[in-house]
TrEMBL record:
Gene3D superfamilies: 2-enoyl-CoA Hydratase, Chain A, domain 1 (3.90.226.10), 6.10.250.170. GO terms for molecular function: isomerase activity. The keyword GTP-binding does not apply. It comes from Bactrocera dorsalis (Oriental fruit fly). The keyword Isomerase applies. It comes from the Eukaryota. This is Enoyl-CoA delta isomerase 1, mitochondrial. The gene is LOC105232332. Keywords: Isomerase. Pfam families: ECH_1.
Amino acid sequence: MAARIMNLPKHGLCHLMRTSALARHYAGSTGSASPPQFTTLSVDDKTGIATLTLNRPPANALNAAFMGEIARSIKELEKSKCRGLILTSSSERIFCAGLDLKECYQAEASHLQGIWVALQNLWHTLYSTPLITVALINGHTVAGGGMLALSSEYRIMLPNFKIGINETMVGLAVPMWLIDTYLNVIPNRRVAEWDLTASRIYKSEHALKAGLVDELAASKEQGLERAVAFISSYPKHSLVARAITKRQFREKDLKNFEDNRQHDLEIFLSNIQKPNVQSYLGEYLESLKKKA
Ligand SMILES: CCCC/C=C\CC(=O)SCCNC(=O)CCNC(=O)[C@H](O)C(C)(C)COP(=O)(O)OP(=O)(O)OC[C@H]1O[C@@H](n2cnc3c(N)ncnc32)[C@H](O)[C@@H]1OP(=O)(O)O
């Protein structure tokens, strides 16, 4: 049975706890952090595999609270010595639509700063986690949603959805840490540069051919089975060595990010507050509304 967990035991595999108890645990263990609102987390006691389900309707658009919640869950799972993490969505159409653009439109600089810092922290937490990570992409995933998928180690996608990084189309530069993340998946620099400058969005089937995702699954249930099989394919005795090896692959990207964290924030703030970008954002949001 799926149950929310937050404060997990430090040794052995994770245990299931019921929602109310978890909320109390979480509030007690993290001081000021509020109880989870936008995610549900369940852990299979036998396999030690956690499933974190994104649940911020209608589009799982990322605001600071949502991103903080995902990052905190990952940190808690690391402490609990869980083996792996599956990221998925409660929506049948959208895995994640990226940053909450409504919160980026005509917002105070301090609010925009909070959003970007939360995005930076979430990327850093997911990209650097020793957990074995799988994105089960059961809906469209673009921009910040693409970041969640690409920062994971393995991607399983359902057919007929879209995946990609469309920042330039929205008027935002792709940050260096996301370029590095993309290159970690699509090492062909020319293809990567073209994709990211042109805001290329792939359909699932094409994403598989291009190597942007690793498998297609016919249904969410099949995707979950495949995700569990991927995580379980790593023998227990190899987990520490595996985590160190993963870290070594990602270390240079993480260091580059730390060296440029402040500059990266300044670029975002300067870009997003430009009158032409704000005006385009307003039109873009209208076009999303009209479509509905
Ligand atoms: C990545 C790191 C570096 C940069 C980081 C972040 C930058 C960003 O993330 S910018 C965000 C860019 N995101 C987008 O451009 C996505 C826009 N959305 C879409 O293209 C589609 O919604 C999507 C393909 C995801 C899904 O299509 P549909 O299934 O057809 O759904 P709808 O379009 O009808 O959307 C449903 C509902 O959600 C609202 N919505 C969608 N996206 C966002 C968003 N990013 N922020 C806020 N709200 C969003 C949309 O307006 C609809 O709302 P209602 O009209 O109220 O139903």
